[in-house]
From TrEMBL:
GO CC annotation, single: cytosol
Pfam families attached to this UniProt entry: eIF-5_eIF-2B, W2
Any one GO MF annotation of this record: GDP-dissociation inhibitor activity
SUPFAM superfamilies: ARM repeat, Translation initiation factor 2 beta, aIF2beta, N-terminal domain
GO biological process: formation of cytoplasmic translation initiation complex
Annotated ranges, domain W2: 200-369
Similarity annotation: Belongs to the eIF-2-beta/eIF-5 family.
Protein name per Swiss-Prot or TrEMBL: 3786_t:CDS:1
Amino acid sequence: MDTLNIGGNEGDRFYRYKMPKLISKIEGKGNGIKTVVPNMSDIARSLSRPPTYPTKFFGCELGAQVNCDEKKDRFIVNGAHEATRLQELLDVFIKKFIIIGKNANTQKVIRDCKACGRRTEVDMRHKLVTYILKHPPTSPKDSAEGSDDELTKRIVAEASELPIADKNANDDDWAVDTSPEAVAERIKDLERDVKTSLIIDDDSEGEQEPHEMLDEWLEDNSEAKNNDVYKKIKELGISKETDMVLKCLVLNLFPDNFQKNGNIEKQIHKRAKLFQKFVTSLDDQLTLLGATEELLNEHKELMESKTVCKILMGYYQSELVEEDVIQAWIEGSDSDKFKSLFKRNASVTCADEAINQDIRNKAKPFAKC
């Protein structure tokens, strides 16, 4: 199996920290296309991280849903993704969550270097941190037998080869005790230091993520003016996380207003300037449509053909989504014009494919307008 130096330094042939080169396998077609990483467990072992962490990181960076089945050793990222692209993202994951770096912010997730013992903080704003906090790494006490990482295995192997002291020898008092008991004790100390690579601070419990705070604020202030909503988003520091922001806005601002105030196109136009700050690319347009699928899935009373078409018309008239993008969204990944767009955003939809298809079928009259 090809190996790479962890964290770069590809020119150093004698670099001691290595990992397997990522392998990807694309399966399925159409809306069901997905990318499997067959050697994710091997990669994760070399990084001393659970394989779910880098897999979830791929999902965060690509805006794609992932499926992690540790029992079957199967790790999937929805959509078609080349191995080179995933390898690039893996390098980013290593830099953010493994390699030691400077960071002056107060953090909750900490990197613990096995080589030098230095501890540094990671960027708590990344979406993966939410998953790590909810799924902390297994502690040394709870680790199953045989789950040692490669460095621990090497330490144990080298320690077991240490010479046993001759009980009859007249060693000096300062000599290293190499008796089986002493060796075993030193191995335990090394394992204790090596196994725990990510430490979760206890005071992180109960704290909310910025997008959760935005959800609650919008729920209580659904009639707030656009400027006030935008100021709140800036205050929470998530103005650049467009996919998260758009989802929060759609799911919290539209349901009550659509039902109470009617005239859906007018309600969308009222919020158009706010949404335009976050819809600046084709990817953002598709993200907005994906968030709308979630809205319709959660509020079945809105899932009527005329209502779906009114929502799309509101987006179109407010210049939030182009007609071609709506047409491509209705056609799904079979759309020739935006095939690459759908590959990048294969999972910016609600989870149930049958519901997705139902929504798009109800939207077809819009394409005929």
